[in-house]
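Regression check, FE2/S2 (inorganic) cluster case 192:
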Amino acid sequence: MDDEPYDVKAFERAQAANDDAPDACASCAMRATRRDFLRDGAIAAALMLGLWPRRGQATMIPRLLSGVLAGSGEIAYPIPDSDGVSIDRKEEIIVARSHGRLYAFYLSCPHQHTALHWIRKHDEFECPKHHSKYKPDGEFISGRATRGMDRYAVRVQGNQLLVDINKLYRQDKDPGGWNGAYAPVPSVAVAS
Ligand code: FES
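Current build output:
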């Protein structure tokens, strides 16, 4: 069970509530589903269990973080000082640093909008509903989903990563936008 970052039983209770979620990708429906999920206090508590590493686990440890509204629809986060994954549960955003690049993802699985798990042992995201898997940069690996994780437009300003919540790229609809939706780690923050 070392590779389960969250309380699986609590998560499954949330998934049962999502079983009737439509398969369409309308953003309003997506956000409503996740908000329902995120209001579940048991799940929020379960997410917090991902804050602390256990002995012998992989190096990429998920953390919780809070963004700051930076105006014009952008949310600012500190630039991660090492490779890893952080979750802003209020804004439903995952911030990731991997191989010199910074990413921001929508929290939910592109298939049927279930909140994704970060599997520390394998350095992969995994959907608890149908087990689609994704790399740390959001690339699809396997499962029922048909595209990578949805990426937000991001840019670096000073020591902050700015996430544009009005620009969310789907890999299948806008592959060029999706491929370009990252920011290089600035040289002053390269050490990991
Ligand atoms: S909801 Fe089906 S793979 Fe994620």
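Comparison notes: The longest strand covers residues 160-169. The mean pLDDT is 77. No diff flagged against the previous build.
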